[in-house]
Amino acid sequence: MSKKAKTVFVCQECGYESPKWLGQCICGQWNTMIEERVVESRENDKRNRSVSGERIKASRLSEIKSGNETRINTGIGELNRVLGGGLVKGSLTLISGEPGIGKSTIIIQAAAKIAEDHGKVLYVTGEESAEQIKMRADRVCRGELNNLFLLAETNMENIVCVQEELDPAFLIIDSIQTMYSDELESAPGSVSQVRACGNELMKIGKGKNIPVFIVAHVTKNGDLAGPKIIEHLVDCVLNFTGERDQELRILRAYKNRFGTTSEIGAFEMTEEGLTEIQNLSKTFLEGLEDGAEGAMATAIYEGTRPLLLEVQALTSPTNIGFARRTAIGVELPRLNMILAVMERKAGLSLINQDVYVNVVGGLKPEGTSIDLAVALAIYSTCKGIKGSSKVLAIGEIGLTGDLRSIQNADKIVREAARLGFTKAVMPQKNAARLTEVPGGIKVVGVNSLREAIQAVQHP
Description:
By secondary structure, this protein is α/β, with parallel strands linked by helices. The protein folds into three domains: 5-63, no CATH class; 71-278, Rossmann fold; 282-457, Ribosomal Protein S5, domain 2, CATH 3.30.230.10. It is 27% helix and 27% strand. It is built from twelve helices and 24 strands. The strands form six sheets. It has a nine-stranded mixed sheet, with helices on both faces. Strands 2-1-3-4 form a four-stranded antiparallel sheet, with no helix packed on it. Strands 16-17-19-18 form a four-stranded mixed sheet. Helix 2 (103-118) packs across helix 3 and helix 9 packs across helix 12 (449-457). It is elongated, with a radius of gyration of 28 Å. The termini are far apart.
């Protein structure tokens, strides 16, 4: 059944509405009334994003206030970096990760800091009891927690009632797969329940102008569990990754309507919770040894900062069957392409060699700037050539064996010089664009993979 529309007359000068046309508005202006047809939303329509009973009306784009979004400081610098500067009011943020990786830890730490600085915070837990959350907060949180409220509940209608009564400045749902609505008979975590609860949380966030944090489970493949619709509803999708037997944790944004998706945040898991890693490049390079075979330093540009990495490679004779290709942190098709170019353009025979490549630290770099370092590390281990811990290699390898330029090479060179590197091998086009080279580092521009191999071997 279609909604009924009614006609009103609106003054273009002051916005006064009248059920009938007036020659002169109450503001004193003449002939400023225009006719508009408006639709009112139903009182009990929970699917509607607008407020119940509110008049439905389109607005001119020129009349809408442009948004410098009001952001809330989470008190965690690396989390603010990934979010684009902090939590935007009225935004929905989805965070996912494997069990035990630290999702609840970083959320309770952010909740405690926001509660201390900005007012009430409501933490809704559907998986743990309030006592369990309290134990974690005592271990990882500092300061007063009087404004942090816990609610162990899975019924969405009850959560909405508590939220309206408390009126928090920040809402956390842990997790969306445990929530359900009384209006649906399906089990929590089903497609219909996740969709309904997600819509309700969106109404709360947008209608009350408060940020909402939603925790989501992942499948065994690392993808978000449940329907894809939840990713489309939210404004930001964060993924928390890391090895459970290591302290390093990486937070990355895969969707962000209020910032870039190329930023990463680095944390270290300790007994006191997650602590920020300020110098991530130094952490990744701390095991790089001078004179080691099959090791090469490289760099990528993540968001607003350069990040230096170590690439390791190992080749060994194939005993039986086909040669094995194994890569951690590098896409296998990309590795196969680099190996094919090395065989044709660098004269390296790898048909009877197993090849293993690893990006130290568990990071999976995006882009192609580490191609040259991967090729040089493989060449070093295959030929038994000792490498230098003070040499950096960046560049994309083409199928013809040439090197393609990369972005932000100048910023990478400055970071390399700051960390004590003495030589940077890069594509000639990048080297030619450098307007200023920091002291203590030599930049070598090369055009092909063969030239890069020679540049690394000779000082």
